[in-house]
């Protein structure tokens, strides 16, 4: 008689995160990938990605994003150029990865960080603090964002970060002024916070960063103290 195949035992294992998800685990082995979730990176792949990101950040700081070369990034990071292309696709993909590094930290700050950007402050104070922090973030990565503006002309649309920012601003507006058309006014408040306008205000018009933020504060106050909420009247 042939030997019977050994039966595998399975159990559900909780996967850490804000929402409870479960991965099917073979007893004595690592968890299997969760359906619909990205698979964990191998340790060597994670190290390569970190080196590539660090090198690209340094080269952009030294020379600007418009001179970023994937060949040079690969050489400086000590990896094959094919590794960079497979991982990021092209220069725009690598620039998005740099944005993503900062965006993750920014989202942690306004979702779970200390007030007034994070929870614990009144919604109007959080709204002003969030918009000011978003301006600072764009100024800090101005060169990278300008490169993405050029790429966006070929594939117009709102990015994932914008949709997250819009949802957050709309939620704060709804708390502060439940009568507002929160979705519309969230777009209106985020409209000035784009890298091209900020660059024009600071460089071409000579406005200081503090003056730009003060103007944004005034716009926010005007929305929060609007005489009506901007919703169409009920029939």
From TrEMBL:
Pfam families in alphabetical order: TetR_N
Single GO MF descriptor: transcription cis-regulatory region binding
UniProt DNA-binding region:
69-88
Does Transcription appear among the keywords?
no
Q: Which InterPro entries match?
A: Homeodomain-like_sf, HTH-type_TetR-like_transc_reg, HTH_TetR
Instruction: Tell me where the transmembrane regions lie.
Output: none
In this chain the HTH tetR-type domain maps to 46-106
Which residues are in coiled coils?
none
Q: Which UniProt keywords apply?
A: DNA-binding
Q: Kindly indicate whether the keyword DNA-binding belongs to this entry.
A: yes
How is this protein named in the record? Helix-turn-helix transcriptional regulator
Q: Which organism is it from?
A: Nonomuraea montanisoli
């Amino acid at each position: 008689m042939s030997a019977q195949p050994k039966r595998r035992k399975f159990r559900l294992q909780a996967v850490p995160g804000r929402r409870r998800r479960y991965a099917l685990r073979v007893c004595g082995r690592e968890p299997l990938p969760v359906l619909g979730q990205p698979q964990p990176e191998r340790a060597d792949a994670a190290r390569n990605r970190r080196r590539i990101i660090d090198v690209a950040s340094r080269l952009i700081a030294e020379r600007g994003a418009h001179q970023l070369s994937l060949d040079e990034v690969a050489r400086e990071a000590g990896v094959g150029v094919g590794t960079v292309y497979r991982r990021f696709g092209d220069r725009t993909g690598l620039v998005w990865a740099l944005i993503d590094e900062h965006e993750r930290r920014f989202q942690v700050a306004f979702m779970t960080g200390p007030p007034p950007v994070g929870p614990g402050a009144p919604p109007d104070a959080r709204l002003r603090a969030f918009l000011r922090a978003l301006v600072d973030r764009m100024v800090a990565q101005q060169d990278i964002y300008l490169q993405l503006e050029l790429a966006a002309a070929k594939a117009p649309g709102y990015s994932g970060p914008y949709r997250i920012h819009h949802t957050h601003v709309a939620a704060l507006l709804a708390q502060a002024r439940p009568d507002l058309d929160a979705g519309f006014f969230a777009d209106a408040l985020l409209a000035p916070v784009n890298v091209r306008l900020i660059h024009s205000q600071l460089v071409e018009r000579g406005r200081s960063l503090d003056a730009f933020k003060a103007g944004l504060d005034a716009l926010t106050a005007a929305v929060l103290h609007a005489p009506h909420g901007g919703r169409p009247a009920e029939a």
